Amino acid sequence: MSMQALNQLVARSIVEPNIVKSFASGQIDELIADFEFSPELRKRLGTLEAGTFAEFSLLAYRVVKAAEVPARRIELPSPAEGLLDDQAQSDSEQVA
Amino acid sequence: MIPFTREEREWFLRNLARGLVEYFGRSDPPVGVEEMLSQPPPLYDADFGIVEMYSNLWDATFARPPSQRGSIFVRSDLPLDERRFALAREMLSALITSKHGRAMGLPELLLPHLRESAEYFARFLLVPELMLEAYRGRGGKKIGFADVFQIPPRIAAVRWAD
């Protein structure tokens, strides 16, 4: 959600002068309040220091990307592992 | 300007292209690049223009004469798909050198890799992600893609793989 919000902020900045003006006048908190960032990200974005809006965008991208929780993967044991174990067990039984 | 990666630059460019497409409210291909230039957002009244040229030297180039409106000088005999791509590509120069673009810090970010940035921007302006997803969702194939979006086949091949 936050990356979508950041994408929207950057997309709108190219046609809406108020976004860049707000940034230039140091009103970052007010600027990002209009977009759906999580409260934690909102805090962190508000503390970023950048000379231009483009630079702010790149720094914000890094922050938001790092904060995004990677999708959880369901990790099941491979069926091959079980087969290999059985085979290995069987081999040892035969040797014995 | 902070150091940045190509991935970060491309993410930024995709969003610039998306902002323009959304502003014009276009949801189906082909994206109206000539419309964008002839009826730009008010912010770019002094930056977006088209001047037809007879030239064999280039397909299109953006220029801003001192104290005058910036314009894309485009060869008048280009095929439609090549013309659309050339105009979209040069539009990035218009954005970068505009008053608003300079205020955003676009020159520091994009001028060091202008040609590459402009072509990437043009691909995403003419084929926005949502339109490409919709095209694929309707069963659209690589063959026919260039025709639907009215872009040169060589550009379509690159965009399909982006």
From the 3D coordinates, which CATH architecture of chain B would you assign?
A: Orthogonal Bundle
Morphology of chain B: globular
The helix-strand sequence of chain B is HHEEEHHHHHHH
Please tally the β strands of chain B and state the result. Answer: 3
Structural class computed from helices and strand pairing of chain A: mainly alpha
Number of helices of chain B: 9
> How much helix is in the residues of chain A?
55-70%
Largest interface: A-B, 21 and 23 residues
Main beta sheet of chain B: 3 strands, mixed
- Described by its quaternary structure, the protein is heterodimer
Number of domains of chain B: 1
Determine the N-to-C terminus distance of chain A.
60 Å
State the CATH topology of chain B.
Arc Repressor Mutant, subunit A
Summarize it.
The complex is a heterodimer of chains A (96) and B (162). Chain A has 96 residues and is mainly α.
List keywords for this structure.
heterodimer; A: 96 residues; mainly alpha; elongated; B: mainly alpha; Arc Repressor Mutant, subunit A; 3-stranded mixed beta sheet; 9 helices; 8% strand; globular
Written description of the protein model:
- The complex is a heterodimer of chains A (96) and B (162).
- Chain A has one domain (1-96).
- Chain A is built from 6 helices and no strands.
- By secondary structure, chain A is an all-alpha fold.
- The radius of gyration of chain A is 25 Å and the shape is elongated.
- Chain A has helices at residues 2-13, 17-24, 28-33, 39-46, 53-67, 79-95.
- Chain B is mostly helical.
- Chain B has one domain (6-161): Arc Repressor Mutant, subunit A.
- Chain B is built from 9 helices and 3 strands; from the N terminus they run H-H-E-E-E-H-H-H-H-H-H-H.
- Chain B has helices spanning 6-24, 33-38, 80-97, 99-104, 106-110, 114-126, 129-137, 145-149, 153-161; strands at 50-53, 60-63, 71-75.
- In chain B, strand 2 (60-63) and strand 3 (71-75) form a beta hairpin.
- The interface between A and B is medium-sized, with 21 and 23 residues.
